[in-house]
Amino acid sequence: MTKIVIPIKSDVIDNNTADFYDFFGMTNYVSPKKVGDQLAKVQTGDTVELQIASNGGDVFAASEIYTQLKSSTAKVSAVIQGLAASAASVIAVAADDVKISPTAQIMIHKAWSTMQGNAEDLAHESQVLSGIDESIANAYEAKTGMKNSDLLNLMSKETWLGANDAVKYGFADSILTFDEKEPEKQQQALQAFAGAGTVVPKQAVTKWQALMASITANKAAPQNDNKITSQHDLRDQKLAILFGKK
């Protein structure tokens, strides 16, 4: 019997964005593929432990991870080491048993986006976001047993739950305790919290995918001088993507 530890650290991102992160050497993230690769190792009798310290990220990626975990044959536990915010809180409640550090926090809120458009576009986006909120609340309801309406009310206020409140509301099952023989675990929780970050915009991922397609086309037609042909050009393209330049 083996315990498979899956870090839920820093950004929660979709698989396409994960390819972008890997390309730039940004390895501190969690994606459905990363979690799926670990769950694929599960054998009869194995357990899974999520170690969570994340500001959240892509709610649809979190939903996919939630479904993967709930579908696993292994017993899944979660240890909230620092912060389980937003999308990361959705992943946390997929666990059969959730423990939270006495210094940790859970943050829940309603979904948001950076939508632009006319009145009809924004009205439609409002409906989409309301549907996403309901989906998130469903996951919380399954864990906590609270009413969906009460959960939506907490989400609308952007509620932060310390360890005691997390247990009180049912988001966590117990509070971690430490003895003098386990100082390294407390240090690990502090370091994990400090590692949370901000998700790269989808526009940057789209630009990167176009860049990679251009490079592939250039390899197939090296005689075309208009294609990217040097490492210097590639570096400039990378920097342009990172800084949001065209």
Please explain how this structure is put together.
With 246 residues, this protein is an alpha/beta fold. The chain folds into 2 domains: 3-194, Alpha-Beta Complex (2-enoyl-CoA Hydratase, Chain A, domain 1); 202-242, no CATH class. It is 49% helix and 19% strand. It contains 10 helices and 8 strands. It has helices spanning 15-23, 32-39, 59-71, 87-92, 119-144, 148-156, 163-169, 183-194, 202-220, 231-242; strands at 3-12, 29-30, 47-57, 75-85, 97-100, 105-108, 159-161, 174-175. Strands 1, 2, 3, 4, 5, 6, 7 and 8 form an 8-stranded mixed sheet that branches. Helix 5 (119-144) crosses helix 6 and helix 9 runs antiparallel to helix 10 (231-242). The relative contact order is 0.13. InterPro entries: ClpP, ClpP/crotonase-like_dom_sf, ClpP/TepA. Belongs to the peptidase S14 family. This is ATP-dependent Clp protease proteolytic subunit. One of its GO terms (biological process) is proteolysis. GO terms for molecular function: peptidase activity.
